[in-house]
Write the structure tokens for this entry.
Amino acid sequence: MSISVSEITKIYGEQHALDSVSFHVKSGEIVGFLGPNGAGKSTMMKILTTYLEASSGEAQVSGHDVTEAKKAVQKSVGYLPEHNPLYLELYVREYLKFNADVYGVSKSRIEEVIELTGLKPEAHKTIGQLSKGYRQRVGLANALLHNPDVLILDEPTTGLDPNQLVDIRQLITSLGQDKTVFLSTHIMQEVEAMCDRVIIINNGKIVADKYLNDLRKGQEQIVVVEFDYRVEEAFLLKLPNVKTVKNTHDFIYEITFATQNDMRSHVFDFAHDNQLKILQLHQKNTSLESMFRELTA
Ligand code: ADP
Ligand code: MG
């Protein structure tokens, strides 16, 4: 087990920022820690990286207890904090060298992490001269210096433009090939793009913990169909296994089926039998988005 959290509670004054949170992350997983602002994500990550102590409960990272073996935890973990403090006047290599000295990491490792995070073309600049996307790379390079087994990344893509976003997501996915990654986000699509698994937190409580593969083959299926003419909803309700029918736009219908089987051929046969012409027909993948909205509403 790479990360093991057991009934962690954190109380700030009167507020339960975390309320008896438990979960386990296996080695090699990329897990998205998803929740709206104020849900408790950063608090959990600070506890796992030993920057904050829990009010009660236990947590281990790579088998080391976060209160009893802080040093060992710090050695196992690479942490990208939410508001990554970077020294803007320092050159990229200078900044990494400063931290490498703190960790007792060899100089050759600096060039390795520069290579690994794609910083090479910008490495001669000061951090202040870099775009937000490249600053995040510097933060990631820094987190990787001591070659930790576990990466804890707090909202690594917040504030990036769409191109930077794609680049950083790719970088994180590739880092995840030989590390355990636990990353927070409040964006559901982010989890879909990068993660094997999602843990959803709301008001300090875990409200869902699922593998994305299981979600993708969920119990429901929505088929979107466009006809060349108006069709009564009641008529479409005659389809097998149908749950609901919604007319979303002109002659476009969203049909929800209570089955995992691909229902498109049934819709096609139904249209054919009833002299309806189909202009488009596809399955809609919304399970994660709708689940997130329901659980955190
Ligand atoms: P997230 O990262 O999911 O946005 P946080 O872990 O930052 O959530 O915050 C969880 C809750 O705890 C929020 O309501 C926040 O206002 C509160 N909180 C966080 N840090 C402190 C603090 N140092 N003192 C008091 N309340 C805090
Ligand atoms: Mg946060």
The chain has two domains: 3-216, 218-296. The chain has eleven helices and 14 strands. Residues 162-175 form the longest helix (14 residues). The first strand starts at residue 3 and ends at 12.
